[in-house]
Design a protein that fits this description.
CATH topology: Glycerol-3-phosphate (1)-acyltransferase
Number of helices: 8
CATH architecture: 3-Layer(aba) Sandwich
Largest sheet: 10 strands, mixed
Number of strands: 10
Strand content: 15-25%
Helix content: 40-55%
Structural class: alpha/beta
CATH class: Alpha Beta
Distance between the termini: 26 Å
Order of helices and strands: HHEEHEHEHEEEHHEEHE
Shape: globular
Mean pLDDT: 90
Oligomer: single chain
Number of domains: 1
Radius of gyration: 18 Å
């Protein structure tokens, strides 16, 4: 039955996704606003199809450009966070070469960055700045990699370059920009709490192969995920990227701790 569930979900996903890919391609060329909104709608349907129930505290500001700073646990983070707001992501350059996944990422206007090349990192920071100036919402996974779901890894200050640029562009990325933190944690599987030993089963990290990990998750039934979204904070309130990164990391660490050890806070389920 578990394999049958996975096969049915996979077939439904492909049947739903493939015809919509050219729709998004057209929207990218004819209407920027619709091209941002369409993946948001799409990922809400994907989460329903996968059996991912999202519980959210807070809201992404929709009246201003926002740099969203999140921890990273799994490839599931992409549909989960996309289901909450129209966003684009910053991803490592290797993702651009992954079969099929690269097409989906490019259709959502993902910004690819090669962190080992300074020029690529500078170009990516400039692209993030341009997206924000255009009123967009960009998600950065500030750990630079994914974790096992039980902890938050140290944030990489270099990933905050778009928000706090240096040198002659020191003011270019700050004016009018806001930052919000997003803390994500997977809490239940088939209605049962995921403890410290269970969370790494959902997480995709290290040298795990994505196809086999996805197949394993599809066989295992519905998941519950909680997301805490912080209040918007103006970027120019911080002296530099280290101070901004430290603030964001502290916020995310506390929120993840609250998710994994809830204190009866009111959290709304996303339908």
């Amino acid at each position: 039955m578990r394999k049958l569930r996975a096969v049915i979900i996979l077939l439904l996903f492909m049947t739903f996704t493939v015809p919509l890919m050219p729709v998004q391609l057209v929207l990218r060329h004819v209407n920027t606003r619709w091209a941002r909104a369409f993946p948001h709608w799409y990922h809400r349907q994907v989460c329903r199809l996968l059996g991912v129930r999202i519980h959210c505290q807070g809201k992404v500001a929709d009246d201003r450009p926002v740099l969203l700073i999140s921890n990273h646990i799994s490839w599931l983070d992409i549909p989960v966070l996309s289901a909450l707001a129209p966003v684009s992501f910053v991803a490592k350059a290797e993702v651009a070469s992954w079969p099929f996944i690269s097409w989906l990422a490019k259709l959502q206007n993902t910004i690819f960055v090669n962190r080992e090349q300074r020029r690529s990192a500078r170009d990516s920071a400039s692209e993030i700045t341009a997206r924000l100036r255009d009123g967009g919402h960009v998600v950065i996974f500030a750990e630079g990699t994914s974790s096992d779901g039980n902890r938050v890894l140290p944030f990489m200050t270099s990933l905050f370059a778009a928000a706090k640029p240096r040198g002659k562009d020191a003011r270019a990325g700050e004016d009018g920009f806001y930052m919000q933190t997003m803390a994500i944690g997977y809490t239940h599987q088939q209605g049962l709490p995921l403890g410290r030993r269970g969370r790494p089963f959902v997480a995709w990290y290290g040298d795990m192969e994505i196809a086999s990990h996805a197949w394993k998750l599809l066989k295992c039934g519905p998941l519950d995920v909680s997301v805490h979204i912080g209040e918007p904070v103006k970027v120019d309130a911080f002296a530099g990227r280290k101070e901004l990164a430290r603030f964001a990391e502290d916020q995310v660490r506390q929120a993840v701790a609250d998710i994994l050890a809830p204190r009866n806070k009111s959290i709304a389920a996303v339908s």
